[in-house]
Amino acid sequence: MELISQHGCHGGVQRFYHHDSAAIGLPMRFSVFLPPQAQGGAKVPVLFYLAGLTCNEETFMIKAGAQRFAAEHGLMLVAPDTSPRGAGVPGEADAWDFGVGAGFYVDATEAPWSRHWRMESYVAGELFDLVTTALPGEASRAGIFGHSMGGHGALVLAQRHPERFRSVSAFAPICTPSTSPWGRNALYRYLGDDKIVWENHDATALMLKHIRPPFADGILIDQGLSDQFLHEQLLPDAFAAACAHVGQNLILRRHEDYDHGYYFIASFVEDHVRFHGSILNGCRRPLLASAASWNAQLRNTLMPA
Questions:
Q1: Most buried of the four, 5, 7, 104, 227, by CB within 10 Å?
Q2: Number of helices (H) and strands (E), helices first, in the chain?
Q3: Angle formed at CA 31 by CA 25 and CA 33, multiple of 5 degrees
Q4: CA 201, 252, 298, 277: dihedral to nearest 10 degrees?
């Protein structure tokens, strides 16, 4: 693991790393914000962020402004790249919504993608282990969130790896990739044409398979109502219906005038960091009774750890 650069930030340090990935079979990059509470190697909770299509390991750290709030709650932030790069697969960079920058956080089983496009194993396996051993992330206190394709990844990986992720939230996630154009294109080319296999990587289909609610502390999703992808690609109402079916507590907050970009994320990232911080630090649970009451509780009664 090679440190590329580091920068003082809100009393902690923002770092960017490069390493040879065994899961991917290629070099990978990721970014880490170490809060001031991690000085001297002290273990701290770790919150993984999965970015969306066309993004990389820098996007969230540069644009979202989350480090300030992570420092308040003593959370390490980790953001991986969104796909392998430099694999040399023909056509890997021909489209913005597939291939390079578009790994969809699955382990591909179809050639030629299956050799390197193994983002689930990378995020939930190799990278998780790396930041909780070589870096001071505490493995027993880990959460995950993301945006768009990364929101899909967060909702899916949290359900597929409950032993690893205690908290989950998302910004404008692709909630039913089995039925959205982005998702169908990616799942077909990465996983083949068996739609039963697709369901294992579809947040809504996975939620419907639960016998009991998988996240006792609830799930938080923020969605902009001016999002140009809302009705064709994201489909949050389907996920909300699945949560209602199994009794999973969900706050789906809908925001007028907000679109799909990082101005939207930056506007609400404090709430997400507080949400994860309250769970991972063992503070008072964010009782997700209603959007209005929870918003007030989150801002006024959940004190930084």
A1: 104
A2: 11, 9
A3: 150
A4: 0
Strand order, beta sheet including 2-9: 2-9, 12-20, 27-34, 76-80, 44-50, 137-147, 167-171, 219-224, 250-255
CA 140 to chain centre: 17
* The two three-digit tokens of residue 118, written as one number: 């193994």
Q: Which residue has the tokens 């007030």?
A: 296
> Taking the mean position of all CA atoms in its chain, how far away is CA 276?
12
Average pLDDT by stretches of 10, the chain with 305 residues: 96 98 98 96 96 98 98 98 96 95 98 97 98 97 98 98 97 97 97 96 98 96 98 97 97 97 98 97 60 47 33
Distance CA 174, CA 181 (A): 10
Bridge-based pairing state of the strands 250-255 and 219-224: parallel
d(CA 255, CA 75): 26
Which of 102, 120, 234, 97 is closest to 177 using CA atoms?
234
Pairing of strands 44-50, 76-80: parallel
Asked whether 157 and 146 are in contact (CB, 8 A), the reply is no
- Predicted local confidence at residue 59, as pLDDT: 98
What's this model's pTM, rounded to 2 decimal places? 0.93
**In the chain, what is the straight-line distance between the N-terminal and C-terminal CA atoms, in Å?**
30
- Give me the pLDDT at residue 237, please: 97
Position 286 scores a pLDDT of 53
Cα 280 to Cα 246: distance, rounded to the nearest angstrom: 24
pLDDT at 84: 97
- Point out the residues that are catalytic: 148, 227, 260
